[in-house]
Design a protein that fits this description.
About 5% of the residues lie in helices and about 65% in strands. It is built from one helix and six strands.
Length: about 70
């Protein structure tokens, strides 16, 4: 299986599960588009903090509004 779970970094060691079994990640104009094997889709104003493909984890970090301008 090539999917990964996407988590939103909350600071320290805190992470929140954002989406399971993500198989598509596309950066678009300061946002990240996520799509999983079930056809669910999300856009989030974030940047990729870490990709850990061995553990099937995508860690995203929110970006401030002034960073997207």
């Amino acid at each position: 299986m090539c999917e990964a779970n996407a988590y939103l970094y909350k600071g320290g060691e805190q992470e929140e599960l954002l989406m399971e079994r993500v198989d598509r990640v596309v950066p678009q104009n300061g946002e990240i588009y996520l799509e999983n094997i079930f056809g669910q889709r999300k856009m989030i104003a974030a940047k990729i903090k870490e990709l850990n493909l061995v553990d099937h984890r995508i860690i995203l970090e929110m970006i401030a509004a002034e960073e997207t301008v």
